[in-house]
Each structure stands twice: as structure tokens, then as C-alpha cells.
């Protein structure tokens, strides 16, 4: 699992860094076989000295991985230093185990049960099976942390996507209003539909004026000669 984590992509730089931290802990406090295996596969650690990843904010997140890789390579190549580091780490682990065990109290059904285990038995694995169990426990804890970070990352990505969609919708609202206003105005200055309907009817006709009566006050009517001469006809008054 540790070697698999070391080959993760740049965006999973946290997994790589935690795997290297776990490896350093196992090298210093675990079996000597762990250190031997790491020496045999030191090339996998050396390649991480060139690890690169720049996040969206422009921050170099690969610097921690590169520094940790340099420290591990130096430690694995220097056997004397590794021996001293192991002695110091095991003593520190023994002190911490002794302190935690002496202060450990567990409650079950309101009864206090104090357990005291020799610190030496906690510092060193009693068998190869116990050593494998400790390694599996450490790997399980690392895997659980990685899965938790992945869930948090997915939640952040989902919230970011929702914020982007909301921003797009807010931006689209004023644009739609502006388009509706522009559609109501004729860019060529033509009349609106209501004005055009009124203009198409044309102007109202002039008032009708009745023509004057063809009879004069004396009962005299005038006729028109088809040859252009006007003749007058006088009607005699009867009786």
C-alpha cells in the first residue's frame, strides 16, 4: 500500500507525503527488514525528489514531498545515522507508551478498569505476526485518512460547481431582460404595430356638402347644351 501511494499523481500529493511520513516512521521504529526493503527500492523514493505539483492558486504543493524524499534518501544511505535515529525513536516511543498506559483509564458499565502493561512489551513487537498487525493497522489508518480527504475534496468540488452554476444563472437574468427590451424597439425607427394599424386606415374623408338645388328662386332651371351653350327654360306659372 505504501509503495502504491508513492506512485500517485500530482493532485494526490497529500497521499504521497503521508505515505512517505509513514515509511519514515516504520524505518525508525519498525523491524530492520523495513529499512532493508526501503534500501532495495530506494529508486522509488529518489524519483520523488523531482515531484512537481502546482495547485489552482499557483502554490507549489510538491515542495514538501521533495524535501521529505531527500531526507529519506539521505537516511537510507547513511547506516550509522539510521542506527542512531532508530535508537532515539524507539526510546521516545517507549516513553510515550509508558506515559499513555499509566494514564489510561477505560470505563465499562460505570466501572473503572485500569490496565498496566510493561512499556517494553509495547515498544517492541513480540512476534512477526504482531509486527505485521502493527503494519496493517498503520496502513489502514493511512487509507482511512486518504478516503476522508477524498470525500472532503469531492464535497468542495460539488460546492464549487454549484456556486459556478448559480453565478451563471444570476448573470443570465439581466441579459435576458436587456434582450426583451431591445426586441420591443424597432432599430429602423418604424412605427409600432398599434400605430401602423391606425395609419393603414388612411385619413378620414372630408364632410359631404350637398350641391345647390338646380332650380332658381323663380322656378327657372338651367340645362347644359351638349355643344357648350347654356339655354334657359322659363316655366310659365299656371293659373
TrEMBL record:
GO biological process entries: endocytosis
Subcellular location: Cytoplasm
One Pfam family from the record: ENTH
SMART domains: ENTH (SM00273), UIM (SM00726)
Broad class of the protein's primary localization: cytoplasm
Statement: the UniProt record of this protein carries the keyword DNA-binding: no
ENTH domain segment(s): 1-86
GO MF terms held by the record: clathrin binding; phospholipid binding
GO CC terms in record: clathrin vesicle coat; endosome; plasma membrane
Domain of life: Eukaryota
SUPFAM superfamilies on file: ENTH/VHS domain
Residues covered by region (Disordered): 166-239
InterPro entries (UniProt xref): ENTH (IPR013809), ENTH_VHS (IPR008942), UIM_dom (IPR003903)
Gene3D superfamilies according to UniProt: 1.25.40.90
Compositional bias of kind Low complexity: 212-226
Basic and acidic residues: bias regions: 166-176
Entry keywords, A to Z: Cytoplasm, Lipid-binding, Phosphoprotein
Entry's family note: Belongs to the epsin family.
Name under which the protein is recorded: Epsin-1-like
Amino acid at each position: 500500500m505504501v509503495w502504491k501511494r508513492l506512485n500517485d499523481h500530482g493532485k494526490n500529493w497529500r497521499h504521497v507525503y503521508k505515505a512517505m511520513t509513514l515509511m519514515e516512521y516504520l524505518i525508525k521504529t519498525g523491524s530492520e527488514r523495513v529499512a532493508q526493503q526501503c534500501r532495495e527500492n530506494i529508486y522509488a523514493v529518489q524519483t520523488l525528489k523531482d515531484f512537481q505539483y502546482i495547485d489552482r492558486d499557483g502554490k507549489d504543493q510538491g515542495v514538501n514531498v521533495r524535501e521529505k524524499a531527500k531526507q529519506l534518501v539521505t537516511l537510507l544511505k547513511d547506516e550509522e545515522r539510521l542506527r542512531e535515529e532508530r535508537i532515539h525513536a524507539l526510546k521516545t516511543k517507549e516513553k510515550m507508551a509508558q506515559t499513555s498506559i499509566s494514564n489510561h483509564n477505560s470505563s465499562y458499565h460505570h466501572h473503572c478498569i485500569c490496565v498496566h502493561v510493561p512499556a517494553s512489551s509495547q515498544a517492541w513487537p513480540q512476534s512477526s505476526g504482531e509486527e505485521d498487525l502493527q503494519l496493517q493497522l498503520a496502513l489502514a489508518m493511512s487509507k482511512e485518512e486518504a478516503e476522508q480527504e477524498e470525500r472532503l475534496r469531492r464535497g468542495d468540488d460539488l460546492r464549487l460547481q454549484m456556486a459556478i452554476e448559480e453565478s451563471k444563472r444570476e448573470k443570465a437574468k439581466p441579459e435576458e431582460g436587456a434582450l426583451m427590451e431591445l426586441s420591443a424597439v424597432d432599430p429602423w425607427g418604424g412605427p409600432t404595430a398599434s400605430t401602423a394599424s391606425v395609419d393603414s386606415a388612411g385619413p378620414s374623408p372630408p364632410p359631404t356638402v350637398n350641391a345647390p338645388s338646380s332650380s332658381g328662386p323663380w322656378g327657372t332651371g338651367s340645362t347644359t347644351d351638349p355643344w357648350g351653350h347654356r339655354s334657359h327654360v322659363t316655366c310659365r306659372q299656371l293659373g
